[in-house]
Design brief:
about 30% strand, Gyrase A, domain 2, 6-stranded antiparallel barrel, Alpha-Beta Plaits, alpha+beta, 3 domains, 17 strands
Length: about 325
Amino acid sequence: MATVPGTHESSSIAADYEALTRECGLVDRSERGKLALTGASAVEFLNGQVTNELAGIAPGEGRYAAFLTHKGKMLGDLRVLALGERATSELLLDTERPALQALFDMIRRYKVGHGVELHKRTLECALLSLVGPRARSVALAAARLQAEELPAAEHAHRPARIAGARVRLVSVHDGGLDVLLEAADREAVWSALCEAGAREVSAHADEIVRVERGLPRYGIDLDETTIPQEAGLNERAVSFTKGCYVGQETVARLYYRGKPNRHLRGVRLAHEVCAGAEISFSGRRVGTITSAVRSPALGPIALAMVRREAQPGATVLVGEDGVAGEVISPPFSPLSR
């Protein structure tokens, strides 16, 4: 019998890891923050607040972006989905929970006079993620769709039905799919996805795969001291041809004229370490471990913001015990196997 969210007790990280990397793992990410922005000028308004280009976004499309302080430091990152029959009818904003309040406050502060309305959606909407090479085949079976009917481009999305419930299928960067739905329908949709071939996996196994793929999370690897370029987000989240947005001057100046003092890096480790451990290179502190896991395939690995002195290939020492590590440019492994 299929399980429901929160009942899974993983007896084998290896089996969960196998599902996430070779089959289809099912992850409940409903804790992520969600807001809806509505109104005729919703796109125009938000375009002046975030780093990526939103002008011209059409229904069924989405964008990934960051929102910044005036000094170009990250307050958070978010996914913007254009819903409804017109792109301006509703934008769904999906962000990490630690960034939700800052996003809410920013929009509420600057929306005056723009004819837009802000609505809380975190508790109303659930978010389930299908991760792994078989994610799309599971979605096809559960939603009874043909392959060509699934969204293909990153952040593209379409409505569908699973177990009689209305859902929205969202394409993600690694070939997987997110399933957005009403919170009241979560158990029914969860069970249908399991019956279609998905395996519920532990949060720990999901974290291992995230670190392997070099995907930073705001509130863990990124914070209010991070500039998008340091996190390697320019290509996916920043437009250098759009009009003005908050923090643009700093981001553009660093891109065209400067070099970041630090970068998001991976660290291959001789032994396990804990998040928060300091990284040293040539006798100098150059960073701090932000995420650390033991991968079934790769052994101990970690993510960290590392000063540019320690380039990929450098040998560093981590923590009080001086655990040896090698700096790499993430990801550690391909996004699919």
